[in-house]
Amino acid sequence: MRRTVPPLGYGLAGLYVALSFSACSGSQSSLNPAGEQASRISGLWWFYLAVLVGVFTVVIAAMLTAVAIHWRRQEAFSPEMLPEPLNATREQQLTKVVVASVAATVVILFVLLFADFFTGRAVSSPAPKDAITINITGHQWWWSITYEDPVPSKTVSTANELHIPVGRPIMFKLHSTDVIHSFWIPNLHGKKDLIPGHPTSTWFTANQAGTYHGQCAEFCGHQHAHMGLTITAEAPEKFAAWLEGQRQSAPNPATEQQRRGQQVFLGGTCVMCHRIQGTPAMATVGPDLTHFASRHRIAAGTLPNARGWLAGWILDPQAHKPGARMPQHTFAPEELNALLDYLETLK
Ligand code: CUA
Predict the structure, then answer these.
(1) Is any ligand 1 atom within 6 A of the Cβ of residue 181?
(2) φ and ψ at 76, to 5 degrees?
(3) Cβ–ligand 1 contact at 229 (below 6 Å)
(4) Domains, the chain
(5) 30-54 per-position pLDDT tens digit
(6) Cβ neighbour number for residue 269 with a 10 Å cutoff
(7) Distance 242 CA to ligand 1 centre (A)
(8) Three-state helix/strand/coil letters over 74-102
(9) Which pTM value belongs to this model?
(10) Does residue 275 have its Cβ closer than 6 Å to ligand 1?
(11) Which atom of ligand 1 is nearest to the CA of 194?
(12) For 96-110, how does the pLDDT look when each residue is reduced to its tens digit (9 = 90+)?
């Protein structure tokens, strides 16, 4: 039996997609540039669009003219008419038109090639000396983020949600632990691959404050589509305050319930993958959870960071992100509640 989707179904699906995009505020578009590099790339895009729309219009106009001429001739056709004799002047005219069209095509292709070349050169200049260095490591399927500092104790580790200051160049050192991923924040720059065993780098400056969404842009396995990251570009003072906050160890649990939650965390399997600075949890297999509660989403942008979603995620990650490396867990309701209470203190 053939199943059909009623138009209403498509409408609702469209509405759902639109709402889920607007629900996570922030922009994810190369055509809404918030930095110098992205402006160059979107400029190139608009230039290509203008040239190609021009070419398309000319080609369609020529085709419609040919069709119109043909129609008119057919209307005037009578069986006793002979085919048009070969006319030397007409032949010469046609040759000129063909030669001019080929020449114009070659010139246009070279113009596009040079525009692309100069844009590529402009966006891949070396990073300025005063750039802030951030290490990004791609994992199946999340991002670990480390802010370098000459003083090792001031190094900051986090996951999936970046903060950067507006107006300051940021140099990204890109690594991968498993397969090839691609770092892409369309509002700020083009894509750059993260290749296992071969560190790469890229840099950009955000000129406008805002929240921008990025996405892994290289197919990297089952949950490639759920490998999102968020970048918040903010005033330098706000960024400095955020970074200072991230340097602090996690607060000690304040209530009996939170202490119980910490015991659940440290006594269970959580500790085998995650790190919480200031506790014995030091593993780096999964995301750093020191300031987990300050992040907006969990599972690399897949779910909102809210108690219900978090509980569902902890108990059965595979239901939300099949193939994710996090295993399923069984907790008694009382243990789970305590664990959630504890995790919510990790601001
Ligand atoms: Cu990582 Cu696609």
Answers:
(1) yes
(2) -85, 0
(3) no
(4) 22-78+126-247 (2.60.40.420), 256-343 (2.60.40.420)
(5) 889 999 999 999 999 999 999 999 9
(6) 11
(7) 27
(8) HHCCCCCCCCCCCCHHHHHHHHHHHHHHH
(9) 0.81
(10) no
(11) 1
(12) 999 999 999 999 999
